[in-house]
Structures are given as C-alpha cells and as structure tokens.
Amino acid sequence: GSVFFLPKKPAPAKHAGRKKARVSSPERVPFEPLLEGQESSKATQTRYDDYIRAIQCLEKKIENFLLTVNESAISDLCNFVKNAYNKGIDKEENTKFFKCVSQKLQQANQNHIVFLNSMDCTDLKRTEKQVVRQFFGREAIDEDSDNDDCSNEYQEDCQEDDEASICSIDPIEDIVDMNTLAQWYEYNYQIKDGLKPLSKLVIIIQDFECFIPEVLENFIYMCSHYQDRIPTILMLGITTCIRGIDPLHENYSYSVVRLLKPVAFYLQTQKARCDDLVSQCLVEDAQCMKVGENTYEFLLDMFIGRKFSLSLFVSSLKYALMHYFYTNPLSILTTIEPEAIHSRLDLLNENHVEMIRMQISFREYVESKLHQPAKARQLLCDDYYVKSLLPTFSQNMATYHQRFAIALELVIFLQEFLQECLNYDVKKLKSRYELYSIALKKPGLGENEYIQILLDDLIKIDPKQIGELLQIFVSLLKNVFDHVDNIKQEYEDFYQFLIRSKEIENDLTRPSASTRSAATKMKNKESTILQKIEKIGDDYKQLVIDVINYLSIFFDENLRHYSTNTLFEIFYYQEDISILECAFVPKIRSAIHAALGLSTEYINCNCCMVDSDDESNEKDDDDWDSREQILSTHNDTSILYKLHLQCGKLINVRDWLDSFENVISKENLENRKLNEKEVVARFIKGFEELKLIGIIGSTSRKTDHFKRLSWGKL
C-alpha cells in the first residue's frame, strides 16, 4: 500500500578497478504470453507496462486519500499546536493519521515530534528515556539489554523526516532526564529578542487505551511540572471514538484530567471514509479497471468487515489488478485513452479478435444488427472491421463512466436536499458505497426503487424550494463542465430550469403595469394578488413535475447497469471471488484439521515416516491410506484427533483414554514403562486442546461422553 515515509535507497557500492563492459540483455517480462502462446511479445510487454502504471495510479489515489480524508482535523490540530502557548478508529489507521499530523507540524513550525507506544513505555523511567532520546533524534535503545529493541517504526520515520530540524542540534549524551532537558531547552530555545520562534515538544500517544494508567498519570504529572520551562502538548489517540474523551474520566483521576485540559478533535466517520475510498479508487477514474458485483462486495468486506482495514482493501484491489492484467490479453485496451487506442490495434492478432467475438455482449451486439445482414456478416468474418469498431466501444465505455459518476453525485445531492427539506431519517439515506453497490447489481441504480422513492418525495417539497436544488445541480455540472464535454446538454437543460424558477419568483414581486386610477387599483388589489398567487403556484407545480420527469429519464439513462455496454467484459473484473478468498481469507478450520489429520506431511519429519514393510503388513485394501495410520511418534493432540474420527456422534471418554494409552505405550518401550499419571496428564492436555479448538464439546445426555462437532475427513 501507500507509505508516507520511505527508507532511503542505499547508495550503490563503488568498486575499485577497471569496469568491465557488459552486454545488456533484455529484461524478462514477468507476464507470460497468453492465447496459448500466440500473443506477441510486444503485446505482453504492453500488458505488463499497463499493470505497473495501474498499480502506481492506485498508490497515488490511496496516498491522496490518506492526505485528504482528515484534512480539516489535521488543520485544526496544527492551529491548536501553533496557538497553544500564545497566552476511534483502528490503531493502524491512527498511525497513518498521526504521521500526517507529524509531517504538517514539522513543516509549519519546526516542532519536535515524539511518538510513544505502550509496549515501550512500561514504566516511568523508560517513558522518560523515550521522550528525551526521540527529542534529539537518537534511537531509543535500552542500555540494560542489547536484545531489547525499544525503538519502533514510528521513531525511525520521525528520525528521517525530522532531519532538517534535528540534525542541527548536537546530541548531548549527558541529557538523560527531563530536568537536564529543561535546562538545555531554556538555553537553546528561549525567545531571544523575538528572533527565535517558540519550538514546542509534541508527544503523540497513539494507543492511549493500551497504556498503563499509573505510568501515564505519573508522566502527565512530570510534564505538568516542566510545562513552564518546556512547552509540551500531548496528543492522545483514542480509538473508542463513539464515547469521545470518556476513557479519560473513567480511568484517570480528576486531577490528571484537570491538568490535561482536553480538547477533542473528531476525525471523519468510517462511513464517510469508505465513501471517499470507493469514490477515488473505483468511481471517478473513467480509464481504469472496474470491478464487478462479487468482487466489489469482497472489497467492502475486506474494509468494513475487518475493522476498516485500509491495507486489506488496497492489497485485495492490487491482487485483483494483478490477476486481471496477468490473465486477460484484452486488458491492453482498458487503461489507454480512447483517442490513443489506435496504437494498440496493431498489437491485436486474430486470436484477440476471436476472443472479442466470444464475449456475450458482442454476441448481443451482433444480434441487434441482424436486420442488416451485411454488417452482421462483417462482424463475424472481417477482423479489420471489428478492430475499427473498438475505438467507438472504448469511447462509449469512457463516456458511460463519466456520466455515471456525475449522475451518482446528483443522487447524493438530491437525497441530502430532501433530508433537509422533509426531515428524512438519516438512517434511511444511502451512502455512496451503498449506492454504488446497488448500481453494480441488475437492473442498475437507475431502475431501482430507491431512486423512484426520491423522485416521488420530491413532489412533497415546497415548490419554491426547487430553485435551491436546481442551483446545486447547475453548480455541480459547471464544475465538471471543463473536463467532461458530453455533459453540456444537461448543464443547459438544468440552467433553463433554473431560469424558469427565477422568472416565476420574480413574477410574485413584480408590480403590474396599469394606467388605472389609484382608487381603482385599491379596489382590485385583493383579487389581483389572489389570482397572481394561484397562477404562480400552478407554475411552480408544473416546474417541479418537469424537473422530476427530466431526472427520471436522466437517471434511467446514465445509472443503467454496466452490462448494457458492448464489450463491458474487457473493462470489468468479474472473476470468481474464490481467487481472492484463497489469498486473503484464511481457512483456519481446514488448516487445523489438516495439521491434526496429516501431521506427517504437515511437519515433514523423519520420525513419523511409515516403512514400506509395515505398510504392506497392515492392510492390503487399496482404499486404505497410509497417512491415516496412528503412530506413537505423533503429537498427543494429533493421536486423539485421529482416534476421535473412528467414533460416532458420542465419544466414550474411558474408551478414548484406553485407545490413547495403547498407542503411546509403543514409544520408549525398551527404556521405561509409562506412568499412569503421565498418560492421564497427556490425555487431558490433548483433550482440552481439542475442546478449545472446537473439535469436541460436552453433552448433557451422558456425563462420561463427549460429542463430536466436526465431520468428514480430509
């Protein structure tokens, strides 16, 4: 995934002596030629280059997402740190957020950033040492043990990015406590004649809930004692974001909370973060690989169902990209601009064209041309004619993606507008990622009942409020008008609706031209106003009806299902999600059963190998598998597991113990006899492990029996 702080690349080693000239050999492309080896080497190279560009583009999108997802919170935090002395989320995501904050603070005010981790701050002395050493950019190495690595990845990141501000400070080995640090700070960083800016010490505690309260309390007291000499600011990462700063009041005394004077900064909600992630990675870019319904649901499960893990989402999407470009020879037509697709047509041979003809959407396109036999014959027989149509298909798909993204934005603005006007329940509103999920399912978002509900509710609003909605639509289309040319007609149509609403509004306040006397005007004033209000009300209602009819047609056309486009199979990744599940969803239960049932193959040890003579003497049945043989050298848990496979629904504990004793009695038979207590202890240990794993369970039917919870064999 995207990383903010990258290690510096080591400089190439310089070898003395004369350099030998080497003949440069072409690098081997990691992708293999497809189409049974008929794909040209240039097409394979192009496919690999497109994959590399797609991965780089995805990493830039993720990096931009991480920088902008909490932009307002980062800005507020930086302003808070700047003005401080002038008088929930997953831990992984907290780490990335605090890295952004650290980067901003160091760029703005040359502050010193210290990262504290609960694993490295088990007592006050170690915490103090972490702060002092990170303040000077030195690694926090525990002097008591050479093997105890107190530093972590956050300190290394700080050391690399703090190089400009910290390298100018000469490390002082004598500084080992806060008192000496305060004296050094007063000497070097006090404001002298207003020339030096006040540099603050920002201590970031990323996993606040994991800290030992007593250690953190003492550290807060110590920082409070030196706050007049060292301007210190604590940033606490609280993952229980639903409760706000309640963990402070629950686990710490009132005196500590009073010293902290906490100010809460709330990050973007996980729902909003998921919306931004889906929008930037899957919706906005028209020239990229799209995912089908099943793959999209898998990606959502990786993000939402795994504690909003961004790394799992990115890894799954990268794997899908790799599999798409590695296995699809037509992927060279996906990421290129439609205007430049002519350069790729020369890379297509007859096998590519035949693969295009095999697509279901292309067959439907041929069937639509059956009333023109000459064209249908060309589509089936003329390879050059099929190639000539590819730029048109590519342009149509790019146009569909652009218009789809705009129509989706209009739906989001529409439901937010209705929520304000009609006091919608917020829970009933669909988020962006939910709307996109509906759009990927047939028949598409345009024909979904949710869109019809929104349009029906649009009639319920005050007709005078329709101008506000039209102004929102016009502003949105105006912003995208510069880079989306095919939306010009819709922009003009909504603009005309807006002009109509303004004219109707002006009619209400426009004085009527009349040459009658003042007495006549006063006499007919009441009737004139009533007629005008009635006429304007009818005009508003007609305008609302026209807007609703226009939106209904617009949504049906632009939010239709992607399968309505010809050759959509080239642009959408629709492989079976079992490919992704094998890579990212571990089958823990199957792995446990394999380890217990096939322990010899799992461990690959020599002590458990079956001799060929023993194998032939045991059984002559062809169905018998030597791997099912129970050996005394196996692990006790594995022996009990194989014995339990020979039982029915209920397992008699006494019979199980006797069988276990018969198996293990074969080991060390020449040396000593096994003690009965040792046998029972080993049985209980293996028995409890199987119970903990979920292989067996207790039953109320018989006290001396246990029931099987797993069936079948590998």
Number of DSSP strand runs: 8
The major beta sheet can be summarized as: 3 strands, parallel
Query: Strand order of the main beta sheet, please?
Result: 1-2-3
Number of helices: 32
Using the alpha-carbon principal axes, give the shape: globular
On the 0 to 100 scale, the average pLDDT is 76
Distance from first to last alpha carbon = 36 Å
Radius of gyration: 36 Å
> Which percent range fits the helix content?
55-70%
Low-confidence stretches: 1-25, 87-91, 138-172, 191-196, 512-517, 615-620
How much of the polypeptide forms β-strand, as a percent range? under 5%
Structural class: mainly alpha
Brief digest:
The protein is mainly alpha-helical. The chain is built from 32 helices and eight strands.
Q: How does this structure look, described?
A:
One of its GO terms (molecular function) is DNA replication origin binding. This protein is mainly α and 714 residues long. Helices cover 57% and strands 4% of the residues. It contains 32 helices and eight strands. Strands 1-2-3 form a three-stranded parallel β-sheet, with helices on both faces. The relative contact order is 0.07. The N terminus is likely disordered.
